[in-house]
Amino acid sequence: MHRDLLIPSLTILNDSARPFHTIMAIRWPADNRNVNTETRAKVLIPLLFLLSGFLLNAQEVPVPQPLPRGFDSLQLGMSMQEIKDTLLASGDFLYRGDPDVSLLERENLSLMEVEGFGFFSSAQFQFSSDDFLYAMLLVMNRERIDYFSLYTSLSSKYGPPADLSPQSAYWENEEVRISLERPVMLRYIDKAVFDSIKQEGETLESYERISREEFLSRF
Fold first, then answer.
1. pTM for the complete prediction?
2. In which region does residue 104 sit, left (phi positive, over 0), alpha (psi from -120 to 50) or beta (all else)?
């Protein structure tokens, strides 16, 4: 190896104005400058590729989609007749008319249940007193779909859930809540209607408790 690759050449120049002093001019070999340039290039190029990869990944982060108000054509807010007509045209449920429906009617509540097909085991539809759908439960066929796959699909579309536990996860906004429950069930709830019915139930329960206490005080 040549020494001039390791040690810079030194040239002593006499200063005529100051004869007793010398000026040492350091001259680096051209080969050494080329080595430094090549080294910088080897370091910078991978860093540029790495930085471009980070920027590309940041741009590819998906924006969460708005929460739907139901599944496919079955939407919260539809009337019972609209739900029946939609089920009749659907290939996911075994519905050919009222004989295929289990209907339970109570005060301020109508519950309709229908058998599913393919990925669905069954479905339940709850209607308010004014005959509008405010809650829907879709029970999945566990032999065709699993909890984790459905959770992954929902998270990729709508972002992380608002709440997560070993038994369930839910996504919500001001209008609707979508709840994924074990073993594999998906529930859609109209929050405004549900909160109103819940409040009516609490008011009725409070009234019944007061009436009971008043009755007992008479003894």
1. 0.65
2. beta
